[in-house]
User: What shape does this take?
Amino acid sequence: MMQLSDQIALLSSSPKTFLFDIGRVLLDFDFESSLARLIPHRISNPKERIQQVLAQKDVLETGAIDPENYARWALEIFESNATPEQFYLAWQQIFMVNKPMWRCVRQLASQNHSLMLISNINAIHYPWIFTAYPEFSYFEHKVLSFEVGFLKPEFAIYQYAINTYQLEPASTIYIDDLPQNIASAKELGFQCWQYDLNNHQAFEIWLENALASKLFLNP
Assistant: This one.
């Protein structure tokens, strides 16, 4: 089987647009371990309190609440004496790099494919994440939920990407780990792959076939 890098190189004269999710695609994450450090030892139910805070994460990720107010509310739930700045730090220290996917990103960028982000994300993580992980500079454009006011899997966030960046869904590859996000994108006509962090090889095989497909190259 031809290696992914060779397959991409063969098709570099016909660049495509790639739409990437961040969490559990480019970066793995673990909120619980990081946030637990903010909770006093006397608290008997730290996991439940963390879940209570994470259950309201969508409010932060649509931009409906600012980071400081969210942090202060969360720290009250935790009964913590930490400052909002300490909360931000814990909220940021959740990520782990998915090295195999970043190798793909570098290869795709080197062959002039257009790379974009579409993410449910918040103002604590962005723009900090671009400084912490300079590889994000490979992405030319981004659609971030807290900036546009929509969350995946709402059709509106995908439609925003289509309209803003003149995307042709049939010739755009979308990678996300959540089935509900993939389902929405498929309804709009995107070429989709539901990514499994524990089976990166399956993605590379699919991508090789997708790039080689005459139907894909001429939608």
